[in-house]
Each structure stands twice: as C-alpha cells, then as structure tokens.
Amino acid sequence: MAVRLAALLPRTVVLALVFLLASATLTFAAQQKLTAPPPAKPAAKAAPVLVVVPEVRRQAYVFAKGILEDHGFGWRVDGPIKGFAANTVVSQDPLPGTQVIDTGAPMIVLHLAQSAKYHPSGTPENTSPYQATEIRRYELAQVAIPVTPAAKLAAPAKPAAKTPAAPAKPAKPAARYPQKRPPAFAVPGAPKEPLDEMPLPDRARLLSTWLETHRRPTNANVSHWLYQHSWIVAGAKFGWWRGAEALQLLVTADRRAESVWGIGSKSESVARGALAQVGAKSR
Fold first, then answer.
1. Are 112 and 83 in contact (CB under 8 A)?
2. Where in the chain is the domain with CATH 3.30.10.20?
3. Which residues neighbour 19 within 8 Å (Cβ) at sequence distance 6 or greater?
4. Residue 251: CB partners within 8 Å, gap ≥ 6?
5. Which residues 6+ apart lie within 8 Å of 268 measured at CB?
6. What is the spatial distance between Cα 248 and Cα 30, in angstroms, rounded to a whole number?
7. pTM, whole model, 2 decimals?
C-alpha cells in the first residue's frame, strides 16, 4: 500500500503543477486583454475655409484689382480687351457672392470693355502679380445644419411688441483721407480718384517704409511692390491729386529697392517715364 501511494504521489504533484500553470496563463492573458488601450480614434477632418467672391463688375480695372487683392483673390483677364487701368470690368467668373474654398489666391476670370475716351499706352497687366490658385466652388448642400425634434416642435415665444424709440442720429464719422483733391490735369475717360483710398504721395511713402521691414525679395514681397507701384503710376497718369509728387517719391523708393533687393531698375524707369509725362501735362 505504501509502495502504491509512493508511485501515485509524483503523478498527483505533476497534475497539480500543470493545473496551476494553466490557471496562471489564463489569468495573465485576461489581464492583458482587459488592460489593453482602446484603438486610437481617427483625427477629425478640418472644415474647409470659405471665402466670398467680391463684386468688381462696372469697376475700372485699376480699382477691381485692388478689391480682389484686398479679399485675397488672384485674377486673369480673358477676351480681346486687355488689362489696361481705365478699362471697365463687364463680367466676372465666379459671380459675386459665390462661396469658394480658400486655396491660397482663388482665380477670378475678368472680361473687360474698352474705355470710350481714355486711350491706354504701354503694356497691359492681364494677370495678378502673384500666382493665382485653382477655384473650387463650395456647394451649400454640404453644410446643412441638423435640426433636433425639440427645436422643430418648441418654437420660441414671440416677445410682446414694443413701440420703438426714435433712434438717435449717429454722428457722421470723420473722413479718413482728404476729400478735397483737385486733379492735376484732366484726362478724358480716366476714372476719378477714389476718396476712400489714401492719396498717391501717402501711398508712395508707405511703400518706402514697408520696404525697410521687408528686406528679402520674396515672390510675395515683389508682387506687393509691383501692385502698389502700378497703382501710383496709373493714378498719376490719370491726373490724380499730387501725382507728380508721388512719382518723385516713388523714384526714390525704387532706387532704395535696387539697393536693398538688387532689383528694381525697370520699375524706376517706368516711374521716371510717368513723371516726365505728368510733369508735361501739369504745366
């Protein structure tokens, strides 16, 4: 009997050890499964940034360019009538009010009409001075706002009608820029100087000051310079107030740009040529 128990004892011990090892393995696996981190959620897709196409129809091309640049758009002139400053925008694509995705400088296509009286000279500017980007229209159906049932059923109560008090007349804001700007000379068919824009000499001074804080000739900086330069030259040729003074300041700024950027001789030549024309007409 003792011999039989001795023979069975090792087998019992082995079975107990096997059972304990199996239980420990299952417990460890269960703990690993329970403590494993949940899968990462995919990042939410960023909503596109929308911009609204401004109205530039019936504007002189020189003004339409400024409006489009201020709103962050690029442009291209299409059709037989080229991009001279006094020509008028007759159509645009996309139409004003269209929502488009901001792709950097969405391109607006312009069609112009020839100015009836003003005869342009020189080289037309048919594209924006910076690279325009693709136009991507945004469909309003993609931004439908969900309405909850409670919002549908429980309409807010209308407040009792009150007799509105007579509104006080707001004080007329002071004009930002001088409003009396007699032209230096008359140019038939030329657009009038916009009184909500700074005078030409102020624009030339501001451009010179801007140069001192933008000392690298990057594409964006050069495009800004060329646009402002074109505005001053065109305005002076139209006979706008103190155009000759502005061109003198612009020539100095061009020479400074040549010193800082190493480029600008062509712009200086354009400004000097315009100054000669304006000086002759102003006498």
1. yes
2. 50-141
3. none
4. 268, 271, 272, 275
5. 251, 254, 255, 258
6. 84
7. 0.63
Other C-beta atoms lying within 10 Å of the C-beta of residue 79? 13
Would the pLDDT of 269 be above 80? Answer: yes
Distance CA 256, CA 205 (A): 12
Q: What is the pLDDT of residues 3-32, one digit of tens each?
A: 454 454 555 555 555 555 555 554 544 455
CATH 3.50.30.80 fits 50-141, yes or no: no
pLDDT reported for residue 29 = 47
The letter for the amino acid at 76 is R
Integer Cα distance of 261 and 216 in angstroms: 6
Distance (Å, rounded) from C-alpha 271 to C-alpha 276?
9
DSSP-derived letter for residue 92 is E
Span 236-252, average pLDDT: 95
Structure tokens at 259: 């010193």
Question: Residue 242 pLDDT more than 80?
Answer: yes
Query: In sequence order, what DSSP letters do the residues of 245-277 get, joined into one string?
Result: HHHHHHHHHHHHHHHHHS--HHHHHHHHHHHHH
